[in-house]
Amino acid sequence: MSNPAPSDNVVLRHAVEQIQRCLPSHWSTSVATKTNDAADARLTIKTPAGASAALAIGARRQLDPRLVGELAGTLRTATADAFLVIAPFLGARTRERLTDEGLGFVDLVGNMRLVLDRPTVFIAARGDEKSPWGEPRASRSLHAAKASRLVRALVDGAPPFGVRQLAALAGTDPGYVSRLLEIFDREELIERQARGPVIAVAVARLLRRWAEDYRFTEAHRFVPVAHPHGVPGALAGLRDAGVPYALTARAGAAALLGTALPAVVAAYVDNPERVARLLSAEPVESGANLLLIDPFDAFVFEGTWEASGLRYVARSQIIADLLDSPAPAPTQAAALLGV
Fold it and tell me: Which of 78, 148, 179, 329 has the fewest CB atoms nearer than 10 Å to its CB?
């Protein structure tokens, strides 16, 4: 069982304490919980010089990105100098939407933003990106093969997508697909017609969301080897060995971005030990120039493409693998995502 999220009273107390720690010690704050309007509480900040600001606070146990606009509209009916949303945890997309709406926010894992004109206040802090409290079961399983296949189908294909079509592509049942699509819709990772197909996909956000759970560096079995003729020899060996393989991560980024090859190239293969023997490459603990990857599922081989005689995984797979690789891989992923 997952830990229950803290109550609104606990969240309010901790949120006010976080704000107080960021303000000058000689400023005062006071909280009222009976507001007679749309606010759940009101925080007043005062300076010794007499400047003050009243913040209307909206408390939520959880807040999906799609509900931010509705909350903002409701909260703005309260008379206040600024508006603040508090919750146990606020995800990255939710915080982005709150910022777009001009609302401040505080959660219990260190994410905070508050901007005031008078008195002048600018507080911005980034905390954890994962909630320590329970999430819907489906949202915790994006590392699973069927979830990964679904993400790849959404990203690699062209909408519109029907539920049964996606279920067939992911090799799973429509009920599972529907549950994940509901989560993706709430998180604004996709756009759907009412009770209908997926009509748009937020590719960059969905890939980043998938990479958080998929975790390239933990999902597969890695066998580092050293080829006697370096990276060029390793690539030539893979090309000529006649075995299934697909390059990924920084090797894929080099092909897509037209940059230099890294000192270590990574390739998905079937049976890394056998491939190493075919290439006359020795398993090593350090000094590897080739990383042979035994994938936890064959979806990584779907949608491969070729360039200069070498085979690569799909662009979406390259990006997901880059996002969970050491620097400069995440920067390369951002370049491929165009952000």
Answer: 179
